[in-house]
Amino acid sequence: MNPSFTLIAPKKPPPLDDLFRPAVLANHHFLEEANLGGTGIPLVIGLERLGGEISRFETLVYPEGHDRADANLGYIERILKFLLWQRGGWKIYVGGPRSIGEYLRECYSANGNRSFDYHFMGEDVYEKTFSVVPCDPADVPAASERGKPLGGHLDGCRIGFDLGASDRKVSAVIDGRAVFSEEVVWEPKIQNDPEYHCREIMNSLKKAAEQMPRVDAIGGSAAGIYIDNRVRIASLFRGIPKERYGEVRSLFHRIQDEMGVPLEVVNDGDVTALAGSMSLEDVGVLGIAMGSSEAGGYVDMEGNITGWLNELAFAPVDYNPLAPEDEWSGDRGVGAQYFSQECVFRLASKVGIEAPGEISKAAQLEYVQEKLEAGEARAELIWQSIGCYLGYAIAHYADFYNLKHVLLLGRCTSGRGGMLILDGATEVIEDEFPSIAAQVNIQLPDEGSRRIGQAIAAASLPALG
Known about the structure:
3 domains, 15 helices, 5-stranded mixed beta sheet, 15 strands, single chain
């Protein structure tokens, strides 16, 4: 982080993390200073995805030659990092001072500090060469968000499926009512033959199809990144050798051809947000699932799934230069280290709670949660800290999403932990961000949300006709 970029201590620090420096506070402070006396000048970031889709983000920076211009670099680098993992992109237009564009081009290069993002967004997600294009603000292309609306369609005979790491679920749905549901244990991560995945998924689909007079459409939910029904990156296919990954990429196109009906498959976080939107009967829903990592999903103000990545696990929320490092991306202060079981374990060690190492991660989380349920004050500090983290993170997310609702889910929110997180986040937002508190409802799933299951919401993805 550039030393000229000022970090701000929170009014309500997490009980177990005095060094937490919320992204939202640093960003807001920068913009307030840059805007004093009309000093700030426009900077526009354009992110190009497949098919020429463009997202735009507009902000202010110091002009070239200003004595605070060095602060631009720390501010904009973190903004771009967030936008990449929120919206995605393989070609980045930076419309503003040339020094900023050149800095980002060097940083997000094959050998730069963000080489992970360069390779991941370019080669793995979009199968393009990642590039940063410095330019004038007027030369950044206009926004072109052409993602097709998905979800909320319950007419006809549909199949919905949800592919998890340890089980898969399928439902047969007729006019919005589940007439059949099945959950099957499987082990997709350790399989090295793509035909295993195809065969197992087809078995579930055909069993659901037998329960209805016909099949009109199929919708699916799965962890990972899916673009135009093509698998880009997904933990379900971790065991597939690189030379056979092409068979995985086209998996759902093959299944659609065999079933002969419209099929849509999207990230499980988006389907979770869709289920919440359907149960709330409202729009502008951000779903945040805290489990083995942080999963995100979003239903926009028109009630649509956007086609953005929403991989908030790798979007920064803490600008402390000594923040926990993500072992996969190599970045610090990203969501996966704050809203997941890894955060629980990190904070548990600070209060002397050490789960047995020979048990699974899920069992380790349950071990710490048992301490919480037993009323141990040191365990309460863990979830209170996560609540503080989340309050500042939601305020940060609100700078990038139009929000009416934030839905909190996942294993880390079960039991007393969920209410501690909710209460902590609500307290931070009401105290530091009253305008957000007046507009955004933060909640745990109610019974209505539980009734709209993941597989049923997935079934609603394709439109008919």
